[in-house]
């Protein structure tokens, strides 16, 4: 079952108009929200970011917080899996003419949920590989826009090169991953790019910072260079579907001699406790 414009229907019955601005212009925003033990994780934070994104692109939020909560709970009731990944998108809606500028339209709301396949700590222990690429994206990466062509291109490169993620840099400073936020540990301190227009303010990023505080790891929300990335003691990526992943190889070079680190172990364990709280 999926949710489309107020109705719960079978996915193969869900259709939208070719004049939908999401289809024609990528004119919309989205959220990906994890569900653990049948509980939607950090729903309010996701809905707040959704609201900020909608405000940025001048789409009216069709539902209030309670209505969103009710819709999502009802949708989850159709699934058996305890661990889910909700995908929710709002496009500006359907117009009768293809024109870049817009007038007031009724937003199209589409929600689906899929099983969330989280890896065990054991599976994480081998670490993951990444490659780096210049960040060619626009200067509003803070908006969780459904226009994801650059991210799609990067993710396809990752798939073709058989690596987990593409880590991006702008002016030699690491920004984020194609679909994740990026962190390094250097001499016991955690570094991550500050929020602003060059990264998406990840909900998991906030949880990583909360977990690092619990682990007494000092935090610097300042960007770091490509050289600093290569010389890092630990390197992690985070997202709602991946949680916190240790990266032990970048562009074929080993990080921490290919071992996952102690800081990651502590932060990962604390994050697990937040999930189950
Ligand atoms: N992507 N940065 C980018 C560019 C992302 O696409 C994502 C997540 C993140 C992490 O955000 P969060 O912790 O809130 O999931 C950072 C989602 C999972 C996606 O597009 O599927």
UniProtKB/TrEMBL annotation:
It is an enzyme of class 4 (lyase). GO terms for biological process: amino acid biosynthetic process; folic acid biosynthetic process. GO terms for molecular function: 4-amino-4-deoxychorismate lyase activity; transaminase activity. Pathway: Cofactor biosynthesis; tetrahydrofolate biosynthesis; 4-aminobenzoate from chorismate: step 2/2. Its EC number is 4.1.3.38. Its cofactor is pyridoxal 5'-phosphate. The keyword Transferase applies. Keywords: Aminotransferase, Folate biosynthesis, Pyridoxal phosphate, Transferase. It holds the Pfam family Aminotran_4. Involved in the biosynthesis of p-aminobenzoate (PABA), a precursor of tetrahydrofolate. Converts 4-amino-4-deoxychorismate into 4-aminobenzoate (PABA) and pyruvate. This is Aminodeoxychorismate lyase. It comes from Candidatus Ruthia endofausta. The lineage of its organism: Bacteria, Pseudomonadati, Pseudomonadota, Gammaproteobacteria, Candidatus Pseudothioglobaceae.
